[in-house]
UniProtKB/TrEMBL annotation:
PANTHER family: INNER MEMBRANE TRANSPORTER, S-ADENOSYLMETHIONINE_S-ADENOSYLHOMOCYSTEINE TRANSPORTER. GO terms for cellular component: plasma membrane. Residues 10-140, 155-292 form the EamA domain. It is found in: Cell membrane. InterPro entries: AA-Vitamin_Transporters, EamA_dom, EmrE-like. This is DMT family transporter. The keyword Transcription does not apply. It comes from Cohnella cholangitidis. Pfam families: EamA. Its main location: membrane. Belongs to the EamA transporter family.
Length: 303
């Protein structure tokens, strides 16, 4: 069996896990401030990352120059992006935020890739990506909210669009480092720094939580976010992205909104429209078309 299918399967599973997390996290947000919940997700994951790293590789250290690079990556890619996502949702509709965040991300990853890796943008990738974009647009806009161009949502729209640019650069900036160090080591360090930089933003939120009144569902949401959505997901996603290539891998983010729609049906009894089903077919066809291309050779630009 061609090993590439293992990595494509890893991308799909991670995207599905992140999509399902919309349903899990939405329930948790009724109890936790969004930024506090994000801090718990990443902060509690840090010891697991370093424990796994120590067991698998025997050490956890990095040169100071690389540590400083990962501190900047963590500040932008974890702290900055997570807070921006929360505020984009606050200042625009969920449909707007989803579309402007998710849809352009792979496009920017493909455009910016030559800055970090020698990765070709092929005709097959373009055709498959276009079909996937049409699909994910139908999935997001085919829901009840639709796309709202009101000036009241402009700040949130700009934030969501900015997230797709910064997010693509965040993914790509890890690629040269993962050539020299494992994806596990890189992930452990930038998530640690992202958590540390996020901590000050949680001030005032801790006292608002009725910690003694937390129920099994709250703890389940935290465990799911820490162990599945962060530890397992980041390790698998980064390892798969490194093997497949950033441009191809990021198109599989389009599975996230599809999984989120299913999560809405399961958790909140939300309906699925015909347009969303059509979109799912287009998206699946596009991703299959991308994944059946012969494995590209991905070289890392020297840093």
């Amino acid at each position: 069996m061609d090993n590439k299918w293992v990595y494509y399967a890893g991308l799909i599973m991670v995207a599905a896990v992140w999509g399902a997390n919309f349903g899990v996290s939405r329930s948790a947000m009724e109890t936790f401030d969004p930024i506090l919940f994000s801090f718990l997700r990443f902060g509690l994951a840090v010891p697991f990352f370093f424990l796994i790293l120590k067991i698998r590789e025997g050490s956890v250290g990095l040169p100071w120059r690389v540590v400083l690079q990962l501190a900047l990556i963590g500040l932008v890619g974890v702290t900055g992006l997570e807070i921006a996502v929360m505020y984009s949702i606050k200042y625009t509709t969920l449909a707007n935020a989803s579309l402007l965040n998710v849809a352009p991300w792979p496009i920017f990853a493909a455009l910016f890739a030559p800055m970090f890796v020698k990765e070709k943008f092929t005709k097959r990738l373009g055709i498959g990506g276009a079909a996937a974009i049409v699909g994910v647009t139908c999935i997001i806009l085919g829901g009840e909210e639709g796309f709202n161009l009101s000036s009241d949502h402009m700040l949130g729209n700009l934030l969501a669009f900015g997230i797709s640019i910064v997010g693509a650069l965040f993914n790509l900036s890890c690629m040269p480092l993962m050539k020299r160090y494992s994806s596990l080591r890189v992930s452990a360090w930038f998530i640690m720094f992202g958590s540390l930089f996020m901590l000050p933003f949680t001030a005032g939120s801790w006292g608002k939580v009725d910690w003694a009144g937390l129920e099994a569902g709250h703890y389940t949401a935290i465990v799911y976010n820490v162990l599945i959505c962060t530890v397992a997901a980041f390790i698998v996603w980064n390892a798969s992205m490194f093997k497949i290539g950033a441009a191809r891998a990021n198109f599989f983010r389009y599975v996230v909104p599809a999984a989120a729609v299913i999560a809405g049906l399961v958790f909140f009894d939300e309906g699925i429209t015909v347009w969303q089903m059509i979109g799912a077919v287009f998206m699946a066809a596009g991703l299959v078309w991308i994944s059946t291309e012969k494995k590209p050779s991905v070289a890392i630009n020297p840093s």
